[in-house]
Amino acid sequence: MEVNPVAIKALRQEKGWTQQHLADACAISLRTVQRVEKQGSASNDTLLGLCAVFGVEQKRLLILPEPTDPQIQATSPYQHWILLLCTTFIGGCIGALIMYLVLQSA
Fold first, then answer.
1. What is the mean pLDDT of the chain?
2. pTM of the full predicted structure?
3. Which domain covers residue 92, as residue numbers?
4. HEC string of the chain?
5. Domains identified in the chain, total number
6. More exposed terminus of the chain, fewer Cβ within 10 Å: N or C?
């Protein structure tokens, strides 16, 4: 699992802990702590131990992958604005038509 080595090292240093102290607190080896802080590679158990010791949520330590779906990557923010404007315009027209019909029948 890919974790943020900078965040882990920063949290450890904020507490004033050595790598060995962190390893002991998480019940993992010193080598594991060194690998996590250098390469950002950790097992799920190691991640859970780090989160418990630091008192943080997993999302604070994880590096989330970018979406790989080509359709998601190909969508531009401009297309979202066009869709929003069109649906707002159509909704306004439908609302005006309903109000017109209600007023005509009254």
1. 90
2. 0.61
3. 74-105
4. CEECHHHHHHHHHHCCCCHHHHHHHHCCCHHHHHHHHHHCECCHHHHHHHHHHHCCCHHHHECCCCCCCHHHHHCCHHHHHHHHHHHHHHHHHHHHHHHHHHHHHC
5. 2
6. C
